[in-house]
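Example record for the data management plan.
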Amino acid sequence: MDKDYYIFSNGRIKREENTIYFIGADDTKKCLPVEQVDTIHLFGEIDINTKLINYIQRFGIILNFYNYYGYYSGSFIPRESNVSGFTVVNQSKHYLDFDKRMYMAMCFVDCAAHNILRNLRRHKDNIEEIIGVIEHEKNNITNTNNIYELMGVEGRIRKNYYKCFNSFLREDFRFDKRTKRPPEDPINALISFGNSMMYTTVLGEIYKTQLNPTISYLHEPSTKRFSLCLDIAEIFKPLIIDTLIFSMINNRQITIKDFDSNEGICYLNENGKKKFVMEYDKKLSTTIKHRSLKRNVSYKTLIRLECYKLIKHFVGDEIYKPLKAWW
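Corresponding structural encoding:
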C-alpha cells in the first residue's frame, strides 16, 4: 500500500532525477520515493514549482495543504483518470430524486448513530440514560420528512453524544459544548483537527474511484467544497477519529501541553499534531477481518470499499447498505 507523508517543517519539495525530495530550511534532505507515495500532507510553509506538479500528477499523488492552525485549506488533485459519465449521471439522479436522496441521507445518519452507540456502549457506566435518548433519536430517522428534519435528528444525536465525553475522559480534558469556528478548548481542537484529516482521507479515496465528490445527499452540494466527503466521513468519524481521541487522552499520549491558544482559538501545537497524525496513520493501517471478503482489510480500505458500494447503488447493481461496525 502506498504511504501518506506528513511534512511539518518549512522548506521545499522538488523533483530530482526520477523521484522527489523534501529539502528543509536547514538544507536537510529527505527522499520521498515517488512510486510509493499516496498523499503528501503539508503543514509547514512549503515551496513547490510546476516541474514538481507536472511530475507528481503522473503518479496520481495528492497534495493537501493545511493552515497555521493545522486545519485543511485545499488540495492539488491530479487530473482525473477514473472518469465515468454513466456513474456521474446516475449519481446526480439520486440527488435530484427526492426519495432516492432521502434514502442515501438516512443511510449516512443511521450508520453514524450506530457507530456512535457502539462507542458509548464501551463506556456505558453512568450514561445509560443518554444512550437511551440516542437510540430513540435513531429510531426517528425513518420518520423524517425532509433533509432539514433529518439534519435535526443528526444534530441532536451528536449533542447528546458529546454530553457523555466528560464521563469517560480524563478530568483535565473538560468538554462543555461543541465549538467549531473557532474551537475553544482542547477537545474541540482535537475534534476539528481529526475531522479535517478524515475529510482529506475520504477525498483521497473518492479520487481513486469514479464518484464525483461534489454531489452529496445529507450535506447540501455547494460551491468550494467536496460535500460527498462530508457524507461519507459521517460513517467513519466515530470509528476512527473519536476512538483515537478517547484512547490518546486516556492513555496520556496527548496532554494539555500539546495545545496552544491564540486570540481565543485553541489548536494543537506542532508536537501535538505530530502525535495525532502518527496515531491516525496507524489507525488507518489497522486491519480487521472483513465479513464478506473473508480477508483482512485496513480502515483506509474500508473507506474505498464504501465508495465502491455507492457506485454499485447508483448504477443499479446493488442496494447501498452502509458500513456498521461489527467488531
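Summary line stored alongside the record: The chain has ten helices and twelve strands.
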